[in-house]
Write a structure and sequence with these properties.
GO cellular component, one term: nucleus
Radius of gyration: 19 Å
Pathway: Purine metabolism; AMP biosynthesis via salvage pathway; AMP from adenosine: step 1/1
Order of helices and strands: EEHEHEHEHEEEHHEHEHHEHHEEEHH
EC number: 2.7.1.20
CATH class: Alpha Beta
Domain Carbohydrate kinase PfkB: 36-342
Strand content: 15-25%
Keywords: ATP-binding, Kinase, Magnesium, Nucleotide-binding, Nucleus, Purine salvage, Transferase
CATH architecture: 3-Layer(aba) Sandwich
Oligomer: single chain
Number of strands: 14
Helix content: 25-40%
CATH superfamily: Ribokinase
Number of domains: 1
Shape: globular
Strand order of the largest sheet: 6-5-1-9-10-11-12-13-14
Length: 350
């Protein structure tokens, strides 16, 4: 998986991510606020009708901060942080025509992303309320416009060009719920042009309830990411008859793959436990740097940050070994901040 020598390392447009853009609206609140909206601490839910006023209330009364969110967008922003050069990563997803999408775009662009949103008039921009009570966090996501992404967006000449110039393409499993057709188009393009196509399992429920589109994308996947609960859910849904995570990683790496020029790589994170790498028929464990309990602020986006660190090294032609170590380092930094945020320049040493 070496870097194409005909292009400059860290050139613009090298990495493309497609996913569900959400504006994270984060605030410190009290338990009364949670009770008012019938929410629990340390829980994640999809917004119902009764939660709709919550977002404006956070902004008006609780001095909320805005963070560009959504799993793939987080990953692309972290990759850009490491790369320290604008527009190496391009990001696509669907937003509404409203003040939220403007805030979202401004934040993402400030982080160096080349943002190519599709705009819809049907729904408002997706938002995720991050409700903080002490060390506990409760999430309430309203996907809204993110659900409206359509294949027409990637057919536009200016966007098709960005897909053409990308060498590495990354999607989240969450995007399987939105536009499987777009995933197939991009996956086939990657295969036909010998590009690296990567996917994240993203959530256990996707392995079960979106098994069909997931398995349709799977033969194209060169590198697969997931955590231990997602790997277990995948093994169960696909009758791998394994509970040992090392064996699950190995079996996933050996599943059908269309591009036989390289074997599939599978990376399974396990929180504070070792990261598992299944590659070329063997499993390697990478110890995780333990962050002291009192320094942990927010573990929500650790997985997104891990992949961001990994991809930043991969697209520079670094070894998989370095990619994983950078992913571990990135996750350790992000869990010490609120949301997927960071400061200064990264000082990762491979």
């Amino acid at each position: 998986m070496s870097q194409d020598s005909s292009v400059g390392i860290k050139r613009e447009g090298l990495l493309l991510g497609i996913g569900n853009p959400l504006l994270d609206i984060s605030a410190n609140i009290d338990h009364e606020f949670l009770q008012k909206y019938d929410m629990k601490p340390n829980n994640a839910i999809l917004a119902e009708e009764k939660h709709k006023p919550l977002y404006e209330e956070l902004i008006d009364l609780y001095n909320a901060s805005f963070i560009a969110g959504g799993s793939v967008q987080n990953t692309m922003r972290v990759a850009q942080w490491f790369l320290q050069k604008p527009k190496v990563a391009t990001y696509m997803g669907c937003v509404g025509r409203d003040k939220y999408s403007k805030i979202l775009e401004d934040k993402a662009v400030a982080d160096g992303l080349n943002v190519r949103y599709q705009y819809t008039d049907q729904e408002p921009t997706g938002t995720c309320a991050v409700l903080i009570t002490g060390k506990e966090r409760s999430l309430c996501a309203n996907l809204a416009a993110a659900n409206c992404f359509s294949p027409s967006h990637i057919e536009k000449p200016e966007n098709k060009h960005l897909i053409d110039i990308a060498k590495y393409i990354y999607i989240s499993g969450f995007f399987l719920t939105v536009s499987p057709e777009s995933i197939q188009t991009v996956a086939k393009h990657a295969h036909e042009n010998d590009k690296i196509f990567m996917m994240n399992l993203s959530a256990p429920f996707l392995c079960e309830f979106f098994q069909k589109p997931m398995l349709a994308a799977f033969p194209y996947v060169d590198i697969l990411f997931g955590n231990e609960t997602e790997a277990e859910a995948f093994a169960k849904a696909n009758n791998l008859n394994e509970t040992d995570k090392r064996q699950i990683a190995l079996k996933i790496s050996e599943m059908e793959k269309i591009n036989d020029k390289r074997k599939r790589i599978v990376v399974i994170t396990q929180g504070a436990e070792a990261v598992l790498l299944a590659k070329d028929g063997t499993v390697t464990e990478y110890p995780v740097v333990k962050v002291p309990e009192e320094k942990i602020v927010d573990t929500n986006t650790a997985g997104d940050a891990f992949v961001g660190g990994f991809l930043a090294q991969l697209i520079q032609g670094k070894s998989i070994d370095t990619c994983i170590k950078c992913g571990i380092w990135a996750a350790a930094q992000i869990v010490q901040t609120s949301g997927c945020t960071y400061e200064g320049k990264p000082n990762f040493q491979s």
